[in-house]
Amino acid sequence: MDTFRKILLIAILAVLFFLPVRVAAQAQAPVNVNVGVHVVDVYEIDFPNNQVSVDFFLWFTYPVEAGSSINPLETFEVVNAKQVEVSRKYTRVEGNLIYQRAFVKAVIKKNWTVTDFPFDEHTVRIFLEDDASQGNVVYIPDVANSRIESGLRIPGWIPDPLKIEATTKTWESSLGDPALGGQRGAAIPRILVSFMIERPNGGRDLFFKIFSAVLVSVAISFFSLLVSPEELEVRASLSIGSLFAAVGSQFVVSGILPESSVPTLVDNLHVVAYVFITLAALVAVLTHRLNKTKPKSARLWNNVALIVLPILFGIALFILWATYFSAGFFTPPSG
Fold first, then answer.
1. Which residues of the chain have pLDDT under 70?
2. In 10 A of CB 169, how many CB atoms?
3. Taking a C-beta distance cutoff of 8 angstroms, is the pair 139, 165 a contact?
4. Which of 162, 171, 159 is nearest to 192 (CA)?
5. Helix (H, G, I), strand (E, B) or coil at 154
6. Are residues 40 and 162 in contact, defined by beta-carbon separation less than 8 angstroms?
7. CB 250 within 8 A of CB 276
8. In this prediction, what percent of the chain has a pLDDT beyond 70?
């Protein structure tokens, strides 16, 4: 009997010893939170101000027993947004899960890379974090239900399918958290939502719209050489008009693009146009002066320039095009 009592006492002590450890371990275990996003609108793609507006539904599902310790709908952040407006918040218990949903309007910061404009493609990224639940939450992306609205229309753009993945943002600092003991590397759960937008027809339609304006301005400067070398005023008027047309074209394009230290394809196209407009004006002046003493030579050099300049212009365009699209004509760059 004494032996039985000893065994029973040891068993009770063991249970009392290990139960708090197990309960503490369970209390410290991070909660899996499923996160989903459904993008319903993308608008105000603003190149000069480096931003884009995105409206989307956001939802969370997590175990009921974690409801007293976390509330992701109230603690989430869109960390790369200039402005965020959250509305239509909704919470309900479904079985052993808590379901939360909200409608989010966010102005996302975006550094647009326009080197390949108008053949450019861009990836819009939305970063969701939960700093308040650091260490207590593990984000699980709801891949099956996250998508971009199939009927979404973005003027001037075509959206690709949405991607969602879970990542972790690790800071190069403890952020003053005493739990880290001064060590670097405060880790915060993060959800990355991304989708690519590209121009209709790979941007070719927009390119030819811009190219046609530049081509007309250069053609006007070449047409000035059809005028007799004696008529310098007429030639000068045509050259000045073509120059203003090219400058106006570049001014319009620059107004819709952000500031960039790297010249775009269209920038270089306008530079080529300026060079040949200037050459045509120079030929007009030189042949006018030559016409005073040697009329035949003036007409000869004028006719040579009228043939050579358009050919050189075409070669310059070919070289420019091949430089940007060495993989093949009419093939927009990837990325």
1. 1-28, 132-135, 171-186, 258, 260-261, 325-335
2. 14
3. no
4. 162
5. strand
6. no
7. no
8. 81
